[in-house]
Hints:
The protein is 44% helix and 22% strand. The chain contains 7 helices and 7 strands; from the N terminus they run E-H-E-H-H-E-H-E-E-H-H-E-H-E. Strands 1, 2, 3, 4, 5, 6 and 7 form a 7-stranded mixed beta sheet that branches. The relative contact order is 0.14.
Amino acid sequence: xxxxxxxxxxxxxxxxxxxxxxxxxxxxxxxxxxxxxxxxxxxxxxxxxxxxxxxxxxxxxxxxxxxxxxxxxxxxxxxxxxxxxxxxxxxxxxxxxxxxxxxxxxxxxxxxxxxxxxxxxxxxxxxxxxxxxxxxxxxxxxxxxxxxxxxxxxxxxxxxxxxxxxxxxxxxxxxxxxxxx
Length: 181
């Protein structure tokens, strides 16, 4: 049997909690002969929630075994969704119209929010640690995919202030996906 999990839209804490629940249900009801397809179609989301989500999935032995063997179909993966699309899967396929977007993220800060600003008016260390954790995850992914070794892409990434977009054709050429559909 082929099981399918859709990860789409704005990746909020609530949406990722629902997807995590789906993963748990699929794991509980999956045999060794079942296959998993993870479909990703998202252009944005909450970086902290996304990091927590991937840690939860990969931290559970049964879920990790299932998602490591999954087939990932990417329709669009921008920003935090790129981390999700490349955290899972033995194989990846991509829509011909799709794009992959790596970025170092933006964080919303709220004046007067004690989670964002300390008494001294500076961003809190906790805020900075969470932002740094996301940036580190993106840079680690770029390295794992070998994209940091390409001087042209490296220059493009930093010239665009930490943003890199790749078309489906570029992803196939670079071996990031095995097929374009």
